[in-house]
Predict the 3D structure of the following.
Amino acid sequence: MTFAAGGGSVGRRDAWYHKPDVRRLGASLGVGLVLALVTGKDGRSGHFGSGIAAALGGVRVPSFLAVGLALWGVATGINRYGDEMRRALAPATAARKRVTGNATFRTTSLLVMLVVAIGIPPMLSSFWQGVLVEQVGIFMLLAVGLNVVVGWAGLLDLGYIAFYAIGAYTTAYFTGTLPVQPPIVLNPFLCFPLAVLACLLAGVLLGAPTLRLRGDYLAIVTLGFGEIVRIVANNSDGITNGSRGATNIPHFSIHLLGINYDWTLNSLPYWYLIMVVLAVVVLLFFRLEHSRIGRAWAAVREDEVAAQASGVATVKIKLLAFAIGASTSGLAGVIYASKIGFISPDNFLLILSISVLAYVVFGGMGSLFGVMVGAALLTWLPQFLRDYVPATDRNLYIGAILVLMMIFRPAGLLPARRRRTELSLHDIPEAETVAVPAPGSMGGSI
Amino acid sequence: MTELLEVDGIEVRYGAIAALKGVSFSVRRGEIVALLGANGAGKTTTQQTVSGLLRPASGQIRYGGQRIDGVPAHEIIRLGICHVPEGRRVFARMSVVENLQMGAFRFRRVRPEALDRVFTLFPRLKERAKQSAGTLSGGEQQMLAIGRALMGEPRLLLLDEPSMGLAPLVVRQIFEIIREINQQGTTVLLVEQNAAQALRLAHRGYVLETGRIVMEDRAVTLLADDRVRAAYLGEDLGEG
Ligand SMILES: Nc1ncnc2c1ncn2[C@@H]1O[C@H](COP(=O)(O)OP(=O)(O)OP(=O)(O)O)[C@@H](O)[C@H]1O
Ligand SMILES: [Mg+2]
């Protein structure tokens, strides 16, 4: 009569090693151990396992395990005593809510962030300014765009970087730096709308046939598309200059109403440019998220048939998300091409699509602020680690952080409100969601 | 009485399999029509074709005299045909209110009167307005699914097995509410396996068997029919 799970599996689920806390402990110690073994001093080539033997000898393994244990302890403590702590802190939380909830606080904190974003970069070294533009800024923009596709519409796009490439190559074309000449040579600023247009077009051409299919097909098709774009760019010597790529793409410049300004190799002006673009995009997306379209995306993500039955034109609404994501990616491509001045197919490898997806998941799918923080942190971290760990080990640490994040905060660093409930729903036993209510409990209300 | 919905010889295939082999029936304004049949008879397929989720390979569907076969679902709902799909399919991670809001998606904004009406029919939903739909009980989810369809302010309401997986008492409550909705002026096409209760509620009924209509009559007549009693009522007969 009910769909309650059979009783047979109950005993096994109750075993001590199935307890979430225990599993998390195992996982975090495992990550610590593996990380300790694969990083550190190199082993001698030719002696199988000599690196591992060396790692086992020192304080490396114990200290990594200790970090894993400590992390687990903190997380478990928060989990177990979180409610009590929250209760104890209730007055403080209420006070904080009163402050953070009101509009003046929001405006003030926004202003503070703005002041930081404007004021701090000039004090940084030119290396860090470069990182800020070429890594942090560009990838924040990319993450915000991919969030629309993955976080809001729930479409897995593994070829996202292709649109970044299309944006960059559009810029190269219209600034006259490809073997084929454009009808008119334009300033990179004018490439913004053209890149958006090109990406919209490519997005619709790719999406229109594939978005009719369900789920996983899209991931495979986009994965293929990303590679196709890169390989075509690599092989079309006469059009894209092949693997040598486009060089001397000009910087942005303004010559308007007596204002004359040229962006140069200096990173700082680019940072401000990205901030302006990002601000416009975020504002637009924020409005979208809370609009009818945003609700339609959420519905499609949850249950496509039900969304369709509720009157959502599902193919169109998915296509819209896909195209919006694509054109945001294109914007980032324009900025990148102009900043670096040189692009080649090697700038658009599959790993970048995967990285952006990782930033989105890490930051908190569906949360605008979250994915920006995620992208910023994960692009900053490898540069930061540069001074502390061997270059070959950097990505191992990043990987470990991603794994730990998924163990302890599966919804991401700053999850969207809805995602939080989405994941907590998994903890509710099957029986409870479909069980028949006790007859008495409903009789009174009808 | 005038026909609101006329289904005329529709054929629906899933690839090579023909699920409906020329199904015809009609629903008149103000009626409750029950569509009965065993598992796999094609009841869900029929409803999904009417609501535009599937397209017929041949045949016609007319709604208020206008052809609607092949019209996509999001346009059909604008004509006032709202569908409560099989298995409820509430948006599990949205709150009750957000689900209802989605039901009114075809309108620019939610009319407060529509929301009031749903909350009057289902006071239970009002109590749980902020709860996420996935944590509701099965009966409550069914109420929400019906409520969500009502938010689209249907002239024709399609219900696909609203009694599925619910305790008998809850089924009776749900059916009472369907009667009330009908009395408020909404025409209902009800798909059910629970033939006894469906026929007690409906004005007329059709019996579907492997993609064909094999019987049609007034509900009371079907309820007394020997073949229906043997095939679909079984021991359920003694209950009322
Ligand atoms: N998506 C599909 N692909 C292939 N065959 C399908 C599909 N959906 C339904 N069918 C087949 O079509 C026939 C009719 O199915 P339908 O779901 O309409 O039956 P039903 O009368 O609603 O049954 P139930 O009472 O079990 O819900 C069945 O034989 C089924 O196997
Ligand atoms: Mg069915």
User: Anything to note?
Assistant: Residues 235-240 of chain B have pLDDT under 50 and may be disordered. Chain B has two domains: 1-41+52-80+154-165+185-240, 89-153. Chain B touches chain A through 47 residues (CB under 8 Å). The first strand of chain B starts at residue 3 and ends at 14.
